[in-house]
């Protein structure tokens, strides 16, 4: 056996048992070169033979011939960015901080600029789907033209935005014959001009489409929970039986936002069998057995690790129930209902209601639920800290931004206590960038910390939040970038590894701030 397969077999059986000359005979050009190796060992001969074979094949490659000249790329309609911006984008891509990359792309789009044609292949190779829509807008007409010749770049064609006048004139044809992405644009057009038509078109093709496209159709029809209409209930009830998990999840969330829907009534009926008001406290029972019908509404049988099944079922049942139901049933505001929680089921019910508040956008429940969690009882079967970070973030995101910033400012100025929402959770929930007031207070605290010896480095406090790779730089508003680059007085005497790591992270942070400064100053927008 000769050629590449022979070399592969030789590598698999081992150089001590294989004869390289049999894989590349001396009568072949490659074999003749191997024969010139002289006193080389078997291992050297095998490796060099593989290298010679690879180079020989590349040297003999004949490019594909195109018999018919290609249609040239369309003329660009947007201005190519100047060299300094192109250089900056070279530094940010292909590897770099995602948020800095996104910020640069958004500013280029706002400025109506595209990248030079020679940068298109690099940008089209992006692996992150998070900002492909933005990349498609900065590679220009030539980027879209190139995508026709590489299957890995087809996503650029899917990101093409159809002009409104074309949609208005040809929506039906596009829906029937267009690509998946184009069909979704036609559906979105009908959603804004003829909602009943959009829903009817989805229902007409529902069973013949693949699961992923059924999911994408639902998202196009209901891009936000505010877009759900009572007339959507029939379609969404059908989607509850879908094989695709994502389809079912969207349908469950959408039905929860239709007041009085059959879905909501089923949730209320389940919850009312478990929670009632006693003389002074709520009385809470655990479900005795799992019912198969619950699965359709999103209540899984198997709990997460470490949770008893009945406890898991209770929290999921409460999570599906609209919080406004308890106000209507008990005739009391959220704070008083929460205050009536029994100690033995405090955390289970609190978790279920917290999930329900986030699921149903019950903003009036967020503050009292958070307060109850902060002053939670310290005894009972479950530990007090088992409310997950995701659940707490979900509650925080229901609060006004000013309230979140006030919590953060208090921690920055007074340090974190047990009565505070943890800094690490607030960072996730608070929209970026921060206000100038909060950013300046945070920077001032970090400067004092650095100058006084980094004594508490590694304590997982807000002062440690100079994250690796400069991720914290995106917290700053543009007005604070220059101030962040003022000279830092850093005490170098602390040689503990935590302090050394903190100083290294400070360097990464400042490097990222300088990049953001360049993005701000060089890319108009």
Overview of the molecule:
57% of the residues lie in helices and 2% in strands. The strands form 2 sheets. Strands 1-2 form a two-stranded parallel ribbon. A two-stranded antiparallel sheet has the order 3-4. Helix 3 runs antiparallel to helix 4 and helix 6 (98-110) crosses helix 8. The chain is globular. Mean pLDDT is 88; it is low at 380-385. With 525 residues, it is mainly α. Strand 3 (275-277) and strand 4 form a beta hairpin. The protein has helices at 3-13, 20-23, 29-35, 42-59, 83-92, 98-110, 120-124, 132-138, 140-147, 155-158, 164-177, 180-193, 195-205, 211-221, 233-239, 245-256, 262-272, 293-296, 309-320, 324-330, 334-339, 346-360, 363-374, 389-396, 401-414, 423-429, 436-451, 481-484, 497-522; strands spanning 79-80, 113-114, 275-277, 282-284. The longest helix has 26 residues, at 497-522. It has 29 helices and 4 strands. The chain has 5 domains: 3-59, no CATH class; 79-158, no CATH class; 164-256; 262-383, no CATH class; 412-522.
Strand order across the largest sheet? 1-2
Calculate the terminal CA-CA distance, rounded to whole Å.
63 Å
The quaternary state of the protein chains shown equals single chain
pLDDT averaged residue by residue: 88
Shape: globular
Beta-strand content estimate: under 5%
Poorly predicted runs of 5 or more residues: 380-385
- Which bin fits the share of residues in helices? 55-70%
Q: Helix/strand-derived class?
A: mainly alpha
- Total of domains: 5
**Number of helical stretches of at least 4 residues:** 29
Counted beta strands: 4
